[in-house]
TrEMBL record:
Cellular component annotations (GO), alphabetically ordered: membrane
Protein name, per record: Dynamin N-terminal domain-containing protein
Keywords (A to Z) from UniProt: GTP-binding, Hydrolase, Membrane, Nucleotide-binding
Record Gene3D superfamilies: P-loop containing nucleotide triphosphate hydrolases
Entry annotated with the keyword Signal: no
PANTHER family, per the entry: SARCALUMENIN, TRANSMEMBRANE GTPASE FZO1
Matching InterPro entries: Dynamin_N, Mitofusin_fam, P-loop_NTPase
Dynamin N-terminal domain sequence ranges: 46-186
GO terms assigned for molecular function: GTP binding; GTPase activity
Localization: Membrane
Primary localisation category: membrane
Species assigned in the record: Planotetraspora kaengkrachanensis
The organism's place on the tree of life at top rank: Bacteria
Length: 489
């Protein structure tokens, strides 16, 4: 795992410490202290959000590699849960009124319990600790309540996501509704910097996208649907990634046993026509006589619960491809589910830019905090604003400014032709210089400079044609292209 440094965050923490030494207790000091506390740990916080029944908790478990988030319809699904590594399993309940957190037993084996002894309206969030050292190695996860789970929880969901540095948006049925949901998130959280700079979309149920029995065709169709969804959400999400969440959770959380492997091996050895008939749907899978395919009904039910028909197809295909032991099968299913691809994108797009993302969110919070300064605190507030302006000119922070341009474009405040809208999205979502300017990965430095020079000229002309407020956003884009150009000299 690539190591991430937090130089910008440390500078913001130093600003907070300096301000706090000169402030008396009060709203301004409390707000500055909250920012300092948020930056105390060097870990990017990634929220998983989305609509009701979007498969968020299943996705969280797959990302954690352990079943810690509740996946049933329990009262604890109405409360945000943060996950972190500890030497024992326990859960801390944090309250809205500021009282000391209460420790409660975790679920057997670790994780969020099925019920709370407190009214959920009293609870700010849960912190779930588990004996799993890999949980927060690169980033910390937060599971949030489903939007519209209960109408009164919408504000709670928004407040939970505001505390995160980045968002994974779970989308079971991609379309305009998801784009509208993300715009609603943005509208509610003005100043939160939600954009393609720090948002990834996930199609959580790719097994329901197509009824085709050809697994490669299902994957191709899932990629097409994800691509169309990403196009509709240009500027709002960096990328939309298809993931079979049930399969991912089963594989990553090591739920398959040797007994399951043995049963899957029997299925893989069965007559192909018989197997296809069995895998037509759940009822057929359970009803085929055991003397035809010697896997007893109880084991078949377990396989359905763990993998569903799509996952059983993938497992049989993986065994046919040579995955004969449990470790090899788990590895193959992680790859086939799409969870490996998602983890890779989280690392590339979010974790490697964590310092700037977290510093930007903290700086925005400090600007808001400075507005709370009383008459006797204006000198401290002024000095803090000056330090923030200086840090805002750091090269790493310029990329974060693109988030405002993307938000303006998505909201219709930055009118762009489709071609320029795509260029802005590539600049934000690209991981390499070639991706940021729409060239193949093997493009030479000369080709990169030539293309970037063309883009600089194009955006200069665009700036001149835009209204003044929109022109400011276009200037940021043009200057980013210029910075890329000079970095290649």
């Amino acid at each position: 795992m690539e190591e991430v440094t937090y130089g910008l965050c440390h500078r913001v923490r130093s600003m907070c410490a300096e301000a706090l030494t000169a402030l008396r207790p009060g709203p301004f000091a409390d707000a500055v202290g909250a920012v300092a506390e948020r930056l105390a740990g060097d870990t990017l916080v990634v929220a998983v959000g989305g609509r009701l029944n979007a498969g968020k908790s299943t996705l969280v478990n797959a990302l954690l590699g352990q079943r810690l988030a509740p996946t049933g319809g329990t009262e604890t699904t109405l409360v945000s849960a943060w996950f972190r590594s500890y030497h024992m399993n326990r859960v801390w309940v944090h309250f809205n009124d500021g009282r000391s957190p209460a420790s409660i037993p975790s679920r057997v084996g670790g994780g969020v319990p099925q019920s709370l002894q407190y009214d959920h309206s009293e609870v700010s969030h849960l912190v779930v600790e588990a004996a799993n050292k890999s949980i927060d190695r690169a980033f910390a996860l937060m599971d949030t309540p489903g939007r519209d789970a209960v109408s009164a929880l919408d504000d709670y969901s928004m407040a939970s996501i505001r505390k995160a540095d980045a968002l994974i948006l779970a989308m079971p049925q991609p379309g305009e509704g998801d784009a509208a949901a993300l715009r609603e998130f943005q509208e509610t959280m003005r100043g939160s910097r939600l954009s393609a700079a720090n948002v990834l979309g996930v199609l959580t149920r790719i097994d329901q996208i197509s009824e085709d029995t050809d697994l490669e065709e299902v994957r191709r169709e899932a990629d097409k649907v994800a691509g169309r969804s990403a196009d509709r959400m240009t500027g709002l999400v960096a990328e939309v990634i298809p993931v079979a969440t049930k399969l991912a959770e089963t594989a990553r959380c090591e739920r398959l046993t040797e007994q399951h492997l043995y049963a899957l091996g029997i299925l893989a050895a069965a007559d192909r026509d018989t197997l296809e008939d069995m895998l037509f749907d759940h009822e057929d899978f359970l009803s085929v006589a055991p003397d035809t395919v010697p896997v007893d009904p109880g084991m078949r039910k377990e396989l359905l619960d763990l993998l569903a028909i799509y996952g059983i197809r993938q497992a049989v295909d993986a065994i046919d491809g040579g995955a004969r032991d449990l470790s090899a099968l788990r590895d193959a299913l992680c790859e086939r589910s799409g969870i490996n691809r998602l983890l890779e994108r989280v690392q590339q797009r979010l974790v490697t830019g964590a310092d700037a993302l977290r510093a930007d969110a903290a700086m925005a919070a400090l600007r808001t905090a400075a507005e709370l300064a009383g008459a006797a605190e204006q000198e401290v507030a002024g000095r803090l604003r000056g330090l923030l302006r200086e840090l805002g000119r750091h090269p790493a922070m310029r990329r974060v400014e693109l988030a405002e341009a993307a938000q303006a474009q998505a909201a219709g405040m930055l009118p762009l032709p489709d071609q320029n809208s795509g260029q802005l999205h590539m600049l934000m979502a690209g991981v390499t210089d070639a991706q940021r300017v729409g060239l193949p990965e093997d493009a030479s430095p000369e080709e990169l400079r030539r293309r970037i020079g063309e883009l600089v000229d194009e955006w200069k002309m665009l700036e001149a044609s835009l209204p003044r407020r929109a022109r400011l956003h276009a200037t940021v884009v043009r200057e980013m292209f210029e910075a890329l150009y000079f970095s290649l000299l």
